[in-house]
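ligand=iron/sulfur cluster
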Amino acid sequence: MHDIYQFVSGPLARLAFTVFVIGSLYRLVQMFVLVYRKEKFIFSFMSWKYSLRSIFHWIIPFAAVNMQQQPIMTLVTFTFHICLLVTPVFLLSHAVLWEERWNIRLWSLPDQLSDIMTLAVIGCCFFFWGRRIKLPEVRYLTFASDYALLGMVAAPFVTGLIAYHQWIDYPFFMILHILSGEILLMAVPFTRLSHMLFWPFTRAYMGSEFGNVRHARDW
Amino acid sequence: MNEPVKKVAEIIPDEGIDAGLARLTEDRIENTILRVLNGETGARLKVYVETCIHCGLCSEGCHYYLSYDKDPRYSPAGKVKQTLWEMIRKKGRVDKAFMRQAVVIAATQCNMCKRCAMYCPFGIDVAYLMSVVRRITHLLGLTPQYIQATAHSHSVNMNQMWIKEDEWPDTLQWQEDEARSEIPHLRIPLEKEGADIMYSVIGPEPKFQAQLIYQAAVIMNVAGVNWTMPATPGWDNSDMAMFTGDNELMGRIKRVHFETAGRLKVKKIVMGECGHAFRSVYDMGNRWLGWKMPPIPVFHAIEFYYDMIREGRIRIAQKYAEPVTFHDPCNVVRGRGLHEKARYVVNAMCDTLIEMHPNREHNYCCCAGGGVINCGPPYKMVRIDGNRIKAEQLFAVKARGARTLIAPCHNCHSGLEDINHYYGLEMNIKFIGDILYQVMKKP
Amino acid sequence: MADTIAWDWQTGEKSIPVGNSNSRFEWVEEPYVSYDGERVASIVNIAEGEFTVCVNGQTWENPFEKIWHLRFTADDRLTALVSDAGEWTLAVDGVSWENRFGYVWNPLFSQDGRSIAVSFQQDRQYGMALNDVPWEETYGNLTDPVLSPDGNHTAASVQVIPTGEVEIRKFQQGTISAAKDGVVWDRPFVNVWRKAMNLNGDLAAEVRLTLYDYTIAVNGSPWEKTFGGVWEPIFHPISGAVIAPVRVKGKWYLAEEGRLLWSTPFDQLWHPVVSPDGKCIVAIVATGFGKWTVAVDGRAWRHVFSDFVTDMTFSSDSRKIAVIVKDKERWSIAVQGTAWNNTFDMIWKPVFSPDGAHVAAKVERGGKYTMALDDRLWRQDCEAAWDPLFSPDGTRLLVKTIEDGTYFRRVIPVGEFG
Ligand code: SF4
Ligand code: SF4
């Protein structure tokens, strides 16, 4: 067990971060090369003003019309994304790790709050799952891979919660937690989770096209 | 689980599609799809397809989805699922039945209105994705018969309506004659090099709605602008090749249009009240040819009227009394942001403007645009059923008092007219020019 | 172009009043001026449904029910499309052609002005008439007419197989061909568009073999190779070869007889022109999206222009090229790749002096017209103006304008600019 722990928390962790960083860079470079090679005209429309205008309207809860029309989804999705990104970075036990490994000192979340946020992520995943099952327009678009992605996202949070509270079999769940986190990280550049990387760019493009060329809002 | 009730669209016979399918082999389908996916598209397609998280949030953006009882097959991403996703997943190895469905979806169940792009959190442009599908179906020879025939007309006569070269100046001279009974010295100056404005229209105007040319001539003469119309092909700004995916032909049509304006040495092109034509000269055709912006600036009629009223060149004698509502055409509102100028014009002409909801960029499409109405009679009910939501929107504004519906776009007009009749709305549908001509001060 | 030696290059200024004619007529349409500047003409309305042409104050003998498209030929005859009793024809200096038609339009003039062709429609059948001689064969439709530069031949795309508007399969099997002097090629195509003719009367045209395969056909025979697109062909005046822009994998190249002549790919490439001495070929190109310029033998000028490049012209010694450019919404002229500093609201086709040393053009700013010569402006702002013309020795410029209701013909020393 200890060896496995050593492995997943050591070399595999380094690998996961490397794959995440290099993979993400690779995907972005690949996108830019493709634009340069085949859709160069896109560059001529891009505008900082309209890119930021669009990103701004879509990063603020309820700033876009569709967010107002879907208030619950908006609340859930913002809660989900904030907790998903904030919790792993600022969790106390992770902060300790960051300091130990990389000598980075970060502010950390109070334990109770991180518990709530973790539960929020898990809860949101249930919501998304329910949405995929319940809403015909979402079910129609849902593939097995969408459930898998949801599971992959939920896994590190579920296992982390179990491990942290040491409810059952701490070492096993700790390893599972680390492993699932690493899998998630490595999956980002190569699955639809890459929407995290591309979101600013698709928004910037639409924002620029709507603002710069069409003189219209895109929210 | 709430599987929606809906009548399964029966297979609509279409000579274009069916004869095209008969000629196809699966190898040709595969090669063509791969050629387009690998050769002609780039980062946009790739990122759009890989970024879409299948959330369905775009659904509410689409009037087809809303009108067809929220049937997910009509949601924007649902249409991509039934077309491109599958083509990509199968690496182009799809069968004829699949392609038949794909062309029907892309050509008749999407108006390329881009409303959904405002509902997707990523701004994924499903209209663009549908245009890729149309490109594939064009290359496979699967375009629906009526719109393909229209593209043929463009290819021969450089206009949408098989109008022959003599019929065009002849019609203008006839309208000039008619208008002289109202304004004795009125002219429709043909081929006047160095005029400030070239006025361009779409094929249906000389063919079926010559009174619109009459009205435009009166407006131009009253406003005292230095204008001209070409007597050669290039007068028609419309472009169905843009919607069939025949980009090469689209470019050819637009080249003739802009070079005609260049030959006449005009400073700008003012166009009649048409939306898709505006898209073709402002957004699509010019870019395909390598012009970032139109080489000669193009002004939609809304902008022209706005300028003329603001500058006091057109004055209103008596405002239009019947309460009006205003339909924002996708191609000049989401396509060019003319919604506020349009309201300025409408308020200047009319006593009461009652807004329909949603409006401006969020207005529902007429369901005729994007070439859908040009796919002809076989699909008439697809778009009338597919825009029940529009009828509901209009009934609501009618209940609040609106009697006249202003739509400054030809496609919108025809589409809304069908909705008007079918759903029994009984509204008067008018162009801005109809009302402006009626209420303005004339000498 | 007509021989300018015989013109009056001595009288500094001549004038003809044009403003006061307003009182004699119901209305007066925009004026046209002969190349030599000696005559100014307008279509005028004299009564309801009665038009004539007023030239230097004199009207044509016979009025017509309708007149339009008033133009001078290069040899300074005054032509117009005229109608009487519901029939149309062309009138030259007030005298109608013998032949009358249901409709005539699009008069084409040979370079020397001696030949005039029109498209005609008679009983829903279409053809062309050259110098009052109509084609013997007529067709169901006619588009893209041309007159050969020497004025000896006419040609147009014609419909050879009648087709219903929605008969798409039939259309795609080919219903269109080209007719030269009324005689049709022996095979149809899906489409036949822009054409070129040489002195032997050979005819080349852009054709589409299917909805997707474009090529050039010469006297009815298509090139072996097809392309994703083609633009207008030209005949090389020396070698006789047919040259045309072609599209391969989304880029444009210049091709000769179906083989690539320029290896440089361009985003756009059109209006190819061979220099008068036949030594080089130039074309208007886009080197990228929104980057327009001129390419000489496949090499683009260094400067690119954002909006538009048009009306390219060679000096007669083939050493210089001038072209209209529009950059950031302003019009100007570029000579040999360098744009003038002056920009305008509009500019007309540049004109070279016979020795190629000077370039002049009609320009417009703030609603007034004047002349520009080598980037210098003439002092006078005018209500109307016509293209300038150099004297045969290149020292003087013929300037034709209207100021305060008077037409002026002036001969100005080139030194007076600047
Ligand atoms: S019709 Fe409009 S809203 Fe519907 S999918 Fe097409 S572009 Fe999107
Ligand atoms: S809203 Fe955007 S991401 Fe979601 S399903 Fe529609 S297109 Fe895909």
